[in-house]
Amino acid sequence: MKLLYKVTLITFLCLVLGRAFAADPWPNHPIKFIVGFGPGGANDTVARVVAEAASKELGQSIIVENKPGAGSVLGADFVAKSAPDGYTFFVSAGGIVTNPMIKTSMPYREGDLVPVGLLTISPSIIVVSADSKINNIKDLLVSARDAKGLNFSTAGTGSTPHFVAEMLKVKAGGKYEIIPYKSGSEGMVAVISNQVDVTSEASVVVIPQIQGGKLKAIASTWNKRIAALPNVPTTKEQGYPEVLIGHWAGVFAPKGTPDAILEKMNQAINIGLKTAGVQSRLTPQGIEPSPGTRASFIKFLADEKARLEPIVKRANMKED
Question: Is 17 exposed, middle or buried (0-12, 13-18, 19+ CB in 10 A)?
Answer without folding.
Answer: exposed
